[in-house]
């Protein structure tokens, strides 16, 4: 997207965004190109960017998300100081804000990768909301001492337009902490003021006397001459004719609705209705057009979207000449032919992180398709913001709020196109003095040019210091090591040793990086820009080569992962967390390779954006892992038995533990059973398994022993306890407990059912009791795939009969499996309740 090269302030603002990390407040009168600037930055920046806005409609129009949805903020006022804070439903402090935010892994990663946050319609954003954003970014980016956690902010808006909505009770809570409700009085901006750039090249108006009048209104500088000129447009009895193209600007919705209803009612033609086509998530408050649009031939309408082919613009007014199913014909004054208006599509987006490129991307989660039209004999001043009118009747009345006159007047292209229904006096023109004072703080072009050079140097220094800091890799290793330590019983012993070695390698490289930082600082302190500093360039090239080599070695080391587990779920988590470590290393390696020929800020930003990460080819699941078990007494035999076990699992599509767990394979290789009777003494081998797979395992063991002259060692094993026959005269025992004991001995559900002469469903019911108590993990009894299938339906389950769930899930899932998953959810609910109490 191109911009006006002759607009110096536009170019300066763009350079601050492209080449520095200074936050920028971009403002300007109506029609100076603020929206164009937003679109230009979105299309041209190399930075990881997200766009947010205070309302649903504003977010849709800006092509972003709402502030509250993106940051998961509550709507209650945020109190910036916790000292003496009394928790209530009416407000929230830092501690409780972070405690309430449910930030999943994907959202957290988006925040961590974010480099530029654009807030549109900043005039409507309350001061405490900006401080809450600051708290969230610092916390989830682990950069607690930097404003907004190191993210660059671009604030776009005109403070003389729509103000933040603050109820009296809300301001009563906030007033002890803030001078005003406006964003510029937030705590975070008092400590780190943004560059203040006001675009002054006006594209909407070109009539100098009208521009001068608007400036006087904007700055509370109206004089007698100004009032006389403005009120020269007063005509209380003005009645536009049908095709004049005037639109009335009113203060309230009901006034606009009455005018539109009266005018459309005068037309003799019939209504034609057009229903919006809505897909996915699209909330009613965010609808950019009428869900049910009712139009008539000869109705006056307004376009509410800019056409890609520039046939019409947002605010253009015309008259309907023909209504078809998929085309509305609108004749506009001055046009030779009617415009063929078709349905337009608005998108509701959510920001996600591409796992391969690690780029923040827009994910379309809903669409809204409708003709970009609305009845346009009248519209509220609030809804007119951002629109352009050639002719407007301004119905001021006595209900004008402070500053609304400016908004209404600035929608128009010429003074001659304005008609006032009532005279304007000074009371209706008075803008908030706090806004007027703030607007005078804008930076002049010469100051901006100097600040740009200083900010470029500071930004390049930050980029290089961050580049040669390996903390991101260390942070990724911390949860990985913690997980291995917590689940060590499920993995082989070598897993922890390997993990500790990985941590040691990274720690050693981090030490080198820490020692390099003081050298880097000395070079960065020199006057020249880093990208123009020859001494620095030589040092960077040498350092990047060193770190790239060692990072490459770390990548290779990840491929040597020795961790093995029989739990598919735990392997999945292990693989996922190790993938995070892999991505952190790969990103840093890719960045280092971008410095092979030195550092250029723009070229480096483009190189960084090209990062693509391949999946790490490591799988800790034993059924997929083909490496030998080195801590076994007979590793070669262990490997042969595991290959057999995995083959049987693959043929029957069952989890490994239902054939032979890692513990069972360990016993087989340690005790070397030679007969069916000896095999029965091995944990996990009951009657059913003996009949189904016993001989296959024995054949491998016997062949292995014959080749090496080995004999059975089963006599060294403590014999299994024999199950006693049921005594009819004995007191009744806990039948669930009996089942649980047999399960602990390693018997499968089927074996327990046969041994107890009960149905499989009954045994599953017994075990469900222990799942609900937390004694048995659900993953031991139900495969991960089936858990994922059952859980979403089971979470909303109410009642005792599971027939409705079974009907929805079909024959792939048994009644028992459904009951077991419900039991696991009961356990989790109980556990969560206990934690809340504590």
Automatic annotation (TrEMBL):
It comes from the Bacteria. One of its GO terms (biological process) is regulation of DNA-templated transcription. Pfam families: HRDC (PF00570), HTH_40 (PF14493), PIF1 (PF05970). One of its GO terms (molecular function) is nucleotide binding. InterPro entries: AAA+_ATPase (IPR003593), DNA_helicase_pif1-like_DEAD (IPR010285), Helicase_HTH (IPR029491), HRDC-like_sf (IPR010997), HRDC_dom (IPR002121), HRDC_dom_sf (IPR044876), P-loop_NTPase (IPR027417), PIF1_helicase (IPR051055). Residues 631-711 form the HRDC domain. PANTHER family: ATP-DEPENDENT DNA HELICASE, ATP-DEPENDENT DNA HELICASE PIF1. This is AAA family ATPase. It comes from Panacibacter ginsenosidivorans.
